[in-house]
Amino acid sequence: MEKVRFTKELMEIITNMNRENSVCQFFIPGKGRFTLVFQEEDEQSISADAEANPELKNMIQESREQYEQGHGMSTSDLLKSLTPKDFV
User: Fold this and answer.
1) DSSP output for 36-67
2) pTM greater than 0.90
3) pLDDT computed for residue 1 by the predictor
4) Which residues contact 39 (CB under 8 A, 6 or more apart)?
5) How many helices (H) and strands (E) does the chain have?
6) Helix (H) or strand (E) holding 12
7) Alpha carbon separation from 42 to 45, 60, 82 (Å, rounded)
8) How many Cβ atoms sit within 10 Å of the Cβ of residue 4?
């Protein structure tokens, strides 16, 4: 069991995990023992999902076109536009 004292050490452990090296136990002083389990690698990109789903592909294309035409809103603008009435 590895003793982890710094965030960098934990990130190295996570980076080195893969399908063959999928379980890691470590100890963080003051917190306790942890078991980290790597469940699966995400090999599929959004483009692969879009190719597999024509409706998603169309939605992405329409969204890009709207953005290019200036019909977009930032997350901040969206949050500013919401009022308590929107959540009733």
Assistant:
1) EE--------HHHHHHH-HHHHHHHHHHHHHH
2) no
3) 82
4) 22
5) 4, 3
6) helix 7-15
7) 8, 20, 34
8) 19
Please report, for the chain, the start and end positions of each structural domain, with discontinuous segments joined by +.
Answer: 2-37
Does residue 25 surpass a pLDDT of 70? yes
Instruction: For tokens 């901040």, name the residue.
Output: 76
69: its two tokens: 């035409």
Q: Please tell me the distance from the alpha carbon of residue 60 to that of residue 53, in angstroms, as a whole number.
A: 11
Enumerate residues 6+ apart whose C-beta is below 8 A from 26: 1, 2, 3, 4, 10, 13, 33, 34, 36
Sequence-ordered list of residues with C-beta below 8 angstroms from that of 41, at least 6 positions apart, any chain: 18, 19
